[in-house]
Specification:
Helices cover about 35% and strands about 20% of the residues. The protein has about 500 residues and is α/β, with parallel strands linked by helices. The protein folds into two domains: about 240 residues, 3-Layer(aba) Sandwich (Aldehyde Dehydrogenase, Chain A, domain 1), CATH 3.40.605; about 180 residues, Aldehyde Dehydrogenase, Chain A, domain 2. It has a seven-stranded mixed beta sheet with strand order 15-16-17-14-13-19-20, with helices on both faces. Strands 10-9-8-11-12 form a five-stranded parallel beta sheet, sandwiched between helices. It has a three-stranded mixed beta sheet with strand order 1-5-4, covered by helices on one side. Helix 3 packs antiparallel against helix 6 and helix 9 crosses helix 10.
Length: about 500
């Protein structure tokens, strides 16, 4: 595998194959596509197989063939393999992190955090191999035992985005695998190298052939085949809400189990009694970390009018100090956007923002010096935005922050909730009563008090309300719900026929 290098220098690109039935293979056409370093498009990270529907079909068949033996393996034994995988990731953390920065663009400190999330969820789910609780309850009839257990569903189609190329695949694959399902994994075409490195370690950890299958390629050729296959009863997908709705329609025709983690338009509420320096730290980290390319990124600051101006002054002053560049430079604060199309999209929304609010800072692509070879955009802040403006409502997925002044706490709650999304929200306040009201009234799956909108931990459920998803959760023990079916079991040892709800009624 290629070693990360500085922008503009030469390196041997990686050559990535498909991983099907325990073997690294070429696709049926042999066609490839390139993965480029978003900080320097002259740097080819690697060339990867452009998988087809036929390749995907072979991967699905391999997963089907592996399913009976894998589901029959005791769950604690499955967990032991997962522990080995977590240990391998920990051992290779720096290598994975540097490869991620080169391929995806996030700064090295954030890349290490991404890998650490993968490690954490692997350890957590390995432990589920010895838990995976069902229920044992009293029967309403004498000499009768009643209990429920979880069982795997089958082949799980895992379709992941590029912004967390280690963490999100692990969030999805670890609960799927520990509960006894097999996997067909389709990563984003922007980060196939990270996916390849991940699956290499899974194979080394000892997951049996066919248990995990990797098919790189386009959404049309690979993703659609997974979604439409009658042999893939479970789909887990993370990306935009628009794409998620289309997948839901197609998967719904076959009544598939579907877990969707989709868009966000996350807000930070700042009350007049807040620690403004702390709020500034939390907002900047949430808005411009990962260049705003997180589903939990803060793109709205809803601030009481009384402190709007001093908060804006702090945000502007701090944003001016942020350094853009290649994320392997430890002095860099903000890396590139993922590709030129993302730069264009952010630019279009900045044009909309100029008509809706007042541009405070930023507002253009960053093209000075070596930045011209990458997909960079200056951190951008708008003030005077109204809650229902487009830049206050639509997911931009870039380094654009809208500051929305409101009269009081009640107006802040209304503004925060007036969006079709409901993933993450936060409040900065010293008033414990206001904090508890926010925890109750914010329409979001994740709420932070005196912190930004990012930083979810793997042992709590992750997901959102409204168009952020379809109710399933990733991470935490709730994650196994997406990949298991409940089975209720009754054992009657009375020696005669007992009819529930009939024999149990009083005379």
């Amino acid at each position: 595998m290629a070693v990360p290098v500085a922008p503009g220098t030469a390196a041997d690109p990686a050559n990535g194959n498909l991983f099907i039935a325990g073997a690294w293979v070429d696709g049926v056409t042999g066609e490839t596509f390139e993965s480029l370093n978003p900080a320097d498009r002259r740097d080819v990270v690697g060339r990867f197989q452009a998988g087809t529907a036929a390749d995907t079909g072979m991967a699905i068949k391999a997963a089907e063939a592996a399913f009976p033996a894998w589901r029959s393996m005791p769950a604690p034994k499955r967990g032991e393999i997962m522990y080995r995988f977590a240990e391998l990731m920990a051992r290779h953390k720096e290598r994975l992190s540097q490869a991620m920065t080169r391929e995806m663009g996030k700064v090295i400190a954030e890349a290490r955090g991404d890998v650490q999330e993968g490690i954490d969820i692997a350890y957590l789910m390995a432990g589920e191999g010895r838990r995976m609780f069902g229920d044992t309850v009293p029967s309403e009839l004498p000499d009768k035992w009643a209990m429920s257990i979880r069982q795997p569903i089958g082949v799980a189609g895992i379709i992941t985005p590029w912004n967390f190329p280690i963490a999100i695949p692990c969030w999805k694959m670890m609960p799927a695998l520990v509960t006894g399902n097999t996997v067909v994994f389709k990563p984003s075409s922007d980060t196939p190298h990270c996916a390849t490195l991940l699956v290499e370690l899974m194979a080394e950890a000892g997951f049996p052939p066919g248990t995990i299958n990797l098919v790189t390629g386009s959404g049309e050729a690979v993703g659609d085949t997974i979604v439409d296959s009658p042999d893939v009863p479970v789909i887990s997908f993370t990306s935009s809400s628009a794409t998620g709705k289309r997948i839901a329609e197609r998967a719904g025709r076959r009544l598939k189990r579907l877990s969707l983690e989709l868009g966000g338009k996350n807000g930070v509420v700042v009350l007049r009694d807040a620690d403004l320096d702390l709020a500034t730290d939390g907002i900047l980290w949430s808005a411009f970390g990962t260049t705003g390319q997180r589903c939990t990124a803060c793109s709205r600051v809803i601030v009481e009018q009384a402190v709007a101006e001093p908060l804006l002054e702090r945000l502007e002053a701090r944003a001016k100090t942020l350094k853009l560049g290649y994320g392997l430079d430890p002095g860099v604060d903000v890396g590139p956007l993922i590709n030129p199309a993302a730069v264009d999209k952010v630019g279009r929304y900045v044009g909309i923002g100029r008509a809706e609010g007042d541009l405070v800072i930023g507002g253009s692509a960053a093209t000075a010096g070596d930045l011209a070879h990458g997909n960079f955009f200056n951190p951008t802040i708008f003030s005077g935005v109204k809650p229902m403006d487009r830049i206050g409502q639509e997911e931009i997925f870039g380094p654009v922050l809208s500051v929305i002044p409101v009269a009081d706490f009640d107006a802040a709650v209304t503004a925060l909730n007036q969006t079709r999304y409901g993933l993450s929200a936060s409040i900065f306040t010293r008033d414990v009563n206001a904090a508890f009201r926010a925890m109750r009234d914010f329409e979001a799956g994740i709420v932070y008090v005196n912190a930004g909108t990012t930083g979810a931990e793997t042992h709590l459920p992750f997901g959102g309300w409204k168009e952020t998803g379809n109710g399933h959760r990733e991470a935490g023990h709730a994650a196994i719900e997406s990949y298991t079916e409940w089975k209720s079991i009754y054992v009657d040892f009375s020696g005669h026929l007992q009819r529930a709800q009939i024999d149990n009624q009083p005379d």
